[in-house]
Amino acid sequence: MQPPDRPDSSPSQRAHGRDGAHVREVPAWRDRVVWRWMLLVLLALAGLAAVFRQPLADWLWPDTRIQQLLDRGQAALKAGRLSADDGTGARQLYEAALALDGDRSQARQGLASTGQAALARARAELAAGEYARASESLQLARELQVPQAQVTEIAVQLRQRRSRHAGVDDLLRQAAQAHAEGRLDGTPDSALPLYREVLSYEPGRTAALEGREDALSDLLQQAGTALSRGRLAEAADIIGRARGYDAGHYDLPAQEAALNAAIEQRRRRADGDLRRQRLARAGEGYREILAAVPTDVQARQGLERTAAAYAGMAVRSSADFRFAEAERALEAAAALAADSPVLAEARQSVDKSRRAQQSMESKLSPAVRERRLRQRLAELDAAGARGDWLTPPGASAYDALRAAQALAPADARVRRAAARIVPETERCFERELSGNRVRAAGACLDAWHSLAPQSSGLAAARRRLAQRWIAVGSERLRAEDVAFARQALEEAGRLDPSMSELAEFRQRVAAATLRAQP
Questions:
Q1: Alpha-carbon dihedral of residues 253, 256, 261, 265, nearest 10 degrees?
Q2: Could you tell me how far CA 198 lies from the centroid of its own chain?
Q3: How far is Cα 120 from Cα 52, in angstroms, rounded to an integer?
Q4: Distance CA 92, CA 76 (A)
Q5: Residue 173: how many CA atoms within 13 Å on its side-chain side?
Q6: Dihedral (C-alpha) 25, 28, 33, 37: value to the nearest 10 degrees?
């Protein structure tokens, strides 16, 4: 039995009559579906050609693009449009052609022609008295590398013409008169600005050069006078102005050296004031330096350290409920470094202490507060009679005083009790320091500062304790106790951040830390 015929898979289609006989074949390319797809492809190709006609032309025929630029450059040159910021000037068009083909001689010749046209234009503008335009055209000729001799010739003529037009001789007389009257700088009719104007017309004018030199010497003498009176900012301003007129003046290096020496001397004084906790004077010194040299990093850091010291004072005052003192310290800190994170932390601490006091006061009636205050003062007297001024913790006279201050910080009895304990805190500090018990000495120092923050001996005591921390830390560092050495470094830096021994000890601790790492 024969298998049934399979459908015809040829590209043509067959037509059959009623009896199944073969009639004709229809080619596939005449099929309507095929025609539709071919039409869509042709339309897409036409659209792409329309959109990308110019880029394809530039890619396939780059010479065509270059020739267009050359033709446009020639047209711009003939029209006198030598240079234009929008790219339509002869210079820009020739440079664009040269960028596409660096060996194209026509582009190089076009640039040379443009330079010569700029030179010719400068000559014409000079003859017409249009000196500003002539200067611009001459600059274009220079940039297009017109021979130097041709440019120099016109440049000399331009300076001479401008000199005669400006009346250089009159300017020189005005400058000399201003110099004789002591008007050296600051206004357009002062000596140095007038000399500068003359030299802009005639750079080699001997009278102007000598006059400027003498005037600058007199101006720098004023800087020396300002330095001798401690006015750093004024001296720095004068020296800067003198440098602007002539950075090579022979008196300038000596005055700059004197200014730097005065700044370093002021910095040392400010550092010393900070070490002694004379914070107002320290802040003033650092600000004077910054007024003279706004970029001085060390002075900026000094201001931040001073602000941190004020912030610490505010925290300690608020801990004893002396909020007026705390607020004054915060204001002083903000005036020095308003964005300091230390200041923000101090404000939070002061607010916390204030809320604690308000909470305590709201819970106690006046009678109860008075009764408790008397009880705390009695405990203070009893602890003092036993000699327990600062120890043991919780039962000392100092602890009783803190409790009394929390109840009534402004009470006269509380203040008198604090005055009795201050000498004991000083003796405690000396006793513990002499025994190298640095932590205990620090506790005594904190109590001393808390009770008498304006005491004149506090700054020296802080420095001595910082030095002792470094001494003890060095001994422990030799015994390879790196952890204690790091703590000693931190404590010394907190007590006296400007201490000279701190940097060397910090380096030794860092080196020991690296050696201790696995």
A1: 170
A2: 38
A3: 42
A4: 10
A5: 5
A6: -170
Angle at 292 between CA 183 and CA 336, to 5 degrees: 140
Q: Helices 252-275 and 232-245, interaxial angle, to 10°? A: 160
Q: What is the C-alpha end-to-end distance of the chain, expressed in Å?
A: 92
Chain-centre distance of CA 335, in angstroms?
Answer: 19
3-state secondary structure of 6: coil
**Is 333 exposed, middle or buried (CB count within 10 Å of its CB: 0-12, 13-18, 19+)?**
buried
Work out the burial of residue 249: count CB atoms within 10 Å of its CB; fewer than 13 is exposed, 13-18 middle, 19 or more buried.
Answer: middle
Whether the CB-CB separation of 422 and 452 falls below 8 Å is answered with yes
Tell the residue number behind the tokens 């026509």, with chain if given.
106
**288 is written with which tokens?**
């004077």
Q: What are the structure tokens assigned to 154, written together?
A: 């016109």
Rounded Cα distance between 115 and 143, Å, is 8
Residue 72 CB burial class (10 angstroms; 0-12, 13-18, ≥19): middle
Beta bridge partners of 22: 16
Using DSSP's 3-state secondary structure scheme, residue 294 falls into coil
> What letters, b where the CB count within 10 A reaches 16 and e where it falls short, cover 397-426?
bbbbbbbbbbbbbebeebeebbeebeebbb
Whole-Å CA distances, 10 to 25, 26, 34? 10, 11, 16
Per-residue tens of pLDDT for the chain, all 518 residues: 444 444 444 444 444 444 444 445 555 545 566 566 666 767 766 665 555 555 544 454 456 778 888 889 899 989 998 888 888 898 899 888 888 877 778 888 988 999 899 989 988 887 877 777 888 898 898 888 888 888 888 888 777 776 666 677 888 888 899 999 889 998 888 899 888 888 877 788 889 899 999 999 999 999 989 988 888 999 999 999 999 988 888 889 999 999 999 999 898 888 888 887 788 888 899 989 999 988 888 888 888 888 888 888 887 777 666 777 788 888 888 888 888 777 788 888 777 777 666 655 556 667 877 788 788 888 878 877 777 777 777 777 777 777 777 777 677 887 888 788 888 888 888 888 888 888 888 888 888 877 777 777 888 888 899 999 999 989 888 888 888 888 888 888 888 877 778 888 888 888 888 776 65
What's at 335, amino acid-wise?
A
With a CB cutoff of 8 Å and minimum separation 6, the contacts of 274 are 282, 302, 305, 306, 309, 497, 498
